[in-house]
Design goal:
Keywords: DNA-binding, Phosphoprotein, Transcription, Transcription regulation, Two-component regulatory system. Pfam families: Response_reg, Trans_reg_C. It comes from Candidatus Thalassospirochaeta sargassi. This is Response regulator transcription factor. With 233 residues, the protein is α/β, with parallel strands linked by helices. It folds into 2 domains: 126 residues, Response regulator (Rossmann fold, 3-Layer(aba) Sandwich); 95 residues, Orthogonal Bundle (Arc Repressor Mutant, subunit A), CATH 1.10.10. Helix content is 42%, strand content 21%. It has 8 helices and 12 strands. The strands form 3 sheets. Strands 2-1-3-4-5 form a 5-stranded parallel sheet, sandwiched between helices. The chain has a 4-stranded antiparallel sheet with strand order 6-7-8-9, with helices on one face. A 3-stranded antiparallel sheet has the order 10-12-11. Strand 3, helix 3 and strand 4 form a beta-alpha-beta unit. The radius of gyration is 19 Å and the shape is elongated. The structure holds calcium ion (CA).
Length: 233
């Protein structure tokens, strides 16, 4: 399958140039001008690697990287015009996989992308991205949920919530954790989480008032029970 690289870069010409070189290598690209849009796309799209500019309008690259790390383990290559080593160290300190300084040769960047994709592919190949519970099959890599082979329509937030719970089945996640993970924020209205849990239950559970899969851990949060109701077919 073709790899997809997300370029978060506020200068369209630079993004186009990177995109051009990656396409030559048979890599698909997506582009956003801001970190906020990039994070949004990361939840919906199937992204394999991120090329992240540091000087961005709004949220800067470091902030974006911290938020990416709360969601996913995918490789991030930082691109920055600031020459200071501090940038580089900070970048690695919060989980960047590679660093390229501007101005850069697109050829060199493309080679780095290839190397990082290869490394992460080796790292992930042992991980199974599919998980089944009751009549459902969830593919967290390709982002779909099927019941008896039929795809169910979930909103991006519902899918993100289910994927977060499926990361470690049977393990309860607090509302705070889920909120931080999905809404990229450590503060906010936690009832948002329970509202989305209810929506998810309505789509998945036979009796949403008596859930078999999306269970409540009382006084704490929620967890995914993969054994569920054995009688449900
Ligand atoms: Ca910039």
């Amino acid at each position: 399958m073709k790899a997809t690289v997300l370029i978060i870069e506020d200068e369209p010409q630079i993004a186009e140039l990177i995109s051009l070189y990656l396409k030559k290598e048979g890599i698909d690209t997506k582009h956003t001008l801001t970190g906020e849009d990039g994070l949004e796309l990361l939840q919906v799209g199937n992204i394999d690697l991120i090329i992240l500019d540091i000087n961005l309008p709004g949220m800067d690259g470091f902030e974006v990287l911290q938020k990416i790390r709360r969601i996913e383990e995918l490789p991030v290559i930082i691109v920055s015009a600031r020459q200071e080593d501090e940038d580089m160290i900070m970048g690695f300190g919060i989980g960047a996989d590679d660093y390229v300084s501007k101005p850069f040769s697109p050829k060199v960047l493309a080679a780095r992308v290839r190397a990082n994709l290869k490394r992460s592919k080796n790292r992930d190949s042992s991980l199974d991205s599919q998980i089944s519970f009751g009549p459902y099959l969830l593919d967290t890599g390709n982002i779909w949920l099927k019941k008896h082979g039929e795809r169910l329509e979930l909103s991006p937030k519902e899918m993100a919530l289910l994927t977060a719970l499926a990361e470690t089945p049977e393990k309860p996640f607090s509302q705070e954790d889920l909120y931080a993970k999905i809404w990229h924020n450590s503060y906010g209205d936690l009832t948002t989480v329970s509202v989305h849990i209810q929506r998810l239950r309505k789509k998945i559970e036979k009796d949403p008032a008596n859930p078999q899969y999306i269970k409540t851990s009382y006084g704490f949060g929620y967890y995914l029970c993969t054994t569920g109701d054995k009688n449900e077919t």
